[in-house]
Structure formats: structure tokens, C-alpha cells
Amino acid sequence: MARTSDRMSDASFKVMTALFAVSDFFYPHVARRARTFGIREGTTVVDYGCGPGRYTVEFARLTGPAGVVYAVDVQELAVEAARRRAERRGLNNVVPALARGYDSGLPDGVADRIIAVDMFFMVREPSVFLRELKRIARPDGVLVLDDGHQPRSATLGKLQASGCWAIEEETRDHLVCRPAPG
Length: 182
Prior knowledge:
Blueprint: H1 10-26, H2 30-34, E1 44-48, H3 54-63, E2 68-73, H4 76-88, E3 94-98, E4 111-116, H5 126-136, E5 137-145, H6 152-162, E6 165-170, E7 175-179
Parallel strand pairs: 1-2, 1-4, 2-3, 4-5
Antiparallel strand pairs: 5-7, 6-7
Helix pairs in contact: 5-6
């Protein structure tokens, strides 16, 4: 079970959402960045820590109507915001999912790609979290993990300590990982 500190307060979420709206207005980079995550038409993507759905809608566009995007978050306001954002854009391939602690509620092996942008630094039990991500990934699935507000060395240390993921590629913006054997 996630500790309370893994979930931001409703007020903090609302402030974050407003700041993202201003940032996206002046610096519309989300669509461009989403294209760097290797999403293909027809794939199943899990947007873990979906926040207000900024990336969720871009992932849904990239997967097309044959794909599915699970918008997962521990914050009820986030899941609802992502659902509304997808609905307003007529995207019917978004499935909102409220995580209960570190349990995403998703089926085993459902995801071609799991993308966790700007949230990993908030996870207090990274090994438990990374095991859950491995559980929901297909055997040939991919985890795209963004450092968020922590140094790359911290991200690498947490990944290595979990033993769940092998790093396949390291970019300036994120890590691309595959499920580790076992």
C-alpha cells in the first residue's frame, strides 16, 4: 500500500494542473516529447502517474483507435481529469484506472509500453512500485521512466536495487527499460 506521502494533496494537484496549463500554452512540448517514447499504432500503453492527462491524450492519438491507453494515478482528481480531457477530444481508447497504493488494478501482462513521466521521485517504495510495473508489462514490454525531480543517479540506483528492469537505452530525458529475467 502506498503511503500518504506518495499521493499529493488535492490542492497541490490543482495548482500543478494550473501550472501545466500555463507552461503548455507558452511551451507546447508534450506532443513532441510523446513521439520520442516509441509508441506505435495499435499498442497498449499505460500512462502511470497520468496527472491531468497531458500525455494521456497524446499517447491515445499515437496508438490510434486500435490501441488502448490506461490513464493510471493514485490521485482521484488526476484520473477524472484525464478521462475528461480524452472525452473532450473524442478519444475513446482511454481507460481511466485509479491505483490503490502500488496496485494499479490492471491485468497481468497488459502493457506494451509503460510510461512514467515526472512521478518516480515521489514513490517512497520504488522496488514495490517497479515490481507492479513489471507485473503489468508484457514479457517483451518496455518501461519509459523519466527521472522527474531527482538526479539520474537516484533513478538508476532505485532501478538497480529493484532487480525488476534492465536498462536498454539512456537518453537525456528518460530511460528505456525491459523486464529483467526472473
